[in-house]
Amino acid sequence: MLRDLKVFSGRAHPELAREICSHLNTTLGQAEVTTFANENIFVKINESVREADVFVVQPSCSPVNDGLMELLIMIDALKRASAGRITAVIPYYPYSRSDKKDQPRVPITARLVADLITVAGANRVVTIDLHASQIQGFFSVPLDHLTALPIIASYFKEKQIPNLVVVAPDAGRAKLAAKYADRLAAPMAIIDKRRIGNVDRAESSHVVGDVEGMNTLLVDDEITTGGSLIGALEILQDHGARDMYFACTHGILTEGAIERIRSSQLKEVVVTNSVPVPDSKRCGRVVVLSVAKLIAEAIWRIHTGGSISKLFEP
């Protein structure tokens, strides 16, 4: 039988791990994580985890490859320390966009990452809003796929924005937009977007649905450079949209993204702390919501054998 619940964190996002622990009324596990002069990562678990139910919090954020390797080494260290069960809590999954062979001679890196995590010794995985839902099938161990949609939708519901239309930035996000529209009791529209090659740039042509004179909420799973977002905003403006908002789970916000947001007509950008969002990226229009309570509740239900799906019932 599994004994104590323990939460550990790598160096990717210890603030989120500590916030999760505060909701669980526990303290963060003691571990030493360092990098030697030769760039090799060293991990030492500084407390007993024998037969414990252990959760390792480590989202994918810059530097991505270092964070992934750190996660794998922590899992291996915990396994060799006789942890009863090890759950990798990965709020933002690494290489999630490389989920299929859409060109000749390209890898499916999201599957490779799943294999690495499993072989390292993880018995279970928890993640939030995968870029592609089929990634769940890449794992041979149980995966709990959480969503920040209720958190974000509740935020906008409280704002009571009149004449709101939920907009999908492309056909692939139509189901996501429909879920937001249902939560917000709002109509939806879809932007017809065509991506160009492998670059973070897309051409958008027209909008399916009525946005003229309406306030719009664009929804997606993440924002990286902001280039696609700006293209979508221009299309909405051309079709007569008024106030424009954007919401997503993962605020990656790479170099140049904040400048694009500042120079845009966006009223507000809402993201979560699934990855760190430093003050330098929190310009006046960027709002960061916390997923710590959601993850903490999922951890507690996993530990006690409760239902995860009930977390998302309306």
Structural features, described:
- The protein is an alpha/beta fold.
- It has two domains: 5-147 and 292-312, Rossmann fold, CATH 3.40.50; 149-289, Rossmann fold.
- It is built from eight helices and 14 strands.
- The strands form three sheets. A seven-stranded mixed sheet has the order 10-9-8-11-12-13-14, with helices on both faces. Strands 1-4-5-6-7 form a five-stranded parallel sheet, with helices on both faces. It has a two-stranded antiparallel sheet with strand order 2-3.
- Helix 4 packs across helix 5.
- The two termini are 33 Å apart.
- The mean pLDDT is 94.
Give a brief description.
The protein has 314 residues and is an alpha/beta fold.
Radius of gyration: 20 Å
How helical, in percent, are the residues?
Answer: 25-40%
User: Strand order of the main beta sheet, please?
Assistant: 10-9-8-11-12-13-14
- Shape descriptor reads globular
CATH class of the largest domain: Alpha Beta
Strand element count: 14
The CATH architecture of the largest domain can be named as 3-Layer(aba) Sandwich
On the 0 to 100 scale, the average pLDDT is 94
CATH topology of the largest domain: Rossmann fold
Number of individual domains:
2
- What is the H/E string? EHEEEHEHEEHEHEEEHEHEEH
Structural class: alpha/beta
